[in-house]
Specification:
Elements (H helix, E strand, L loop, with lengths): L12 E5 L4 E5 L9 E10 L5 E6 L17 E4 L2 E8 L3 E6 L1 H6 L10 E6 L18 E11 L2 E7 L2 H4 L7 E4 L2 E8 L3 E6 L1 H6 L10 E6 L1 H10 L14 H6 L8
Length: 255
């Protein structure tokens, strides 16, 4: 295994063709295990629009005395994949385009705010969480935060087209954290946060009404895409039915 060699990152798309659908998607690069927390140091407008963020990090220097990243590396910021454009032992800078600013919470970040950080996977990285791309599906809204014994229960509301991809006991990425779904209702899903996760991530700063970046499980998204007819690619996804499963060759048990 080659230490430091990273799998394809945010800016390297992979095109996939199947009998059922064609899609353009970038490969997953994270596992949802927060490595460190960063603090927003500056937020400024980019030279051609968008924004540039400078983030103070707590990563240690390598044995050679260099930062643990290089220009071009991908780092997840609260679950959003962004590319390093410069950096040193204490800080690094990233550029953010208008699409990311509109579709995630990155556009609301202010100086002094804390973000969850995770570097992209290497060939020797353990997959401690689940496969995460750093491509946010929706900004969810925290409905409630309740302490129960030593844990914190969070309900997060998301749009119905994304909620259908979130299943109890399945995985979901919330602000870049790989979490297990406890329950789901018509509006959102429930999480149970253990004390360690509460302590070492930015979730402890969330309250009712806070926005969080939500990414559905990659495997669920791919299966859902494969089950969609070509005509549904550019329309709202429809619910899976027994008839549709039968058409796809799945044997169904009958009473």
């Amino acid at each position: 295994m080659v230490e430091g060699l990273r799998v394809p990152t945010c800016g390297q798309p992979v095109e996939t063709l199947t009998e059922t659908f064609i899609f353009r998607e970038e490969t997953w690069v994270f596992t949802g295990i927060v490595e460190a927390q960063g603090t927003i140091r500056t937020v400024r407008s980019g030279h051609q629009g968008g924004k540039e963020l400078e983030i103070a990090h707590s990563w240690a220097m390598s044995s050679e005395g260099s930062p643990p990243f290089v220009v071009g590396d991908s780092i997840a910021h609260d679950g959003v994949c962004l590319t390093v454009i410069s950096g040193d032992a204490q800080h690094f800078r990233v550029e953010v385009g208008p699409e990311t600013l509109e579709r995630t919470t990155i556009g609301t970040l202010k100086v002094g705010q804390v973000v969850n950080l995770e570097r992209s996977l290497t060939l020797s990285t353990r997959l401690g969480g689940h496969m995460v791309q750093g491509h946010v599906d929706a900004v969810g809204q925290v409905r409630s935060v309740t302490q129960r014994d030593n844990a914190w229960d969070l309900w997060v509301d998301i749009p119905p087209e994304i909620l259908r991809l979130v299943i109890p006991r399945g995985s979901v990425s919330v602000d870049g954290i790989s979490l297990t779904v406890v329950d789901r209702d018509a509006r959102g899903f429930q999480l149970s946060i253990i004390p360690h996760t509460w302590k070492v991530t930015s979730l402890r700063q969330r309250s009712v009404g806070s926005g969080v970046n939500v990414e559905a499980d990659l495997l669920v998204r791919y299966v859902d895409g494969l089950l969609q007819p070509k005509s549904a690619l550019h329309s709202n996804p429809s619910s899976l039915t027994l008839e549709r499963l039968s058409e796809l060759g799945f044997g169904l048990l009958k009473d």
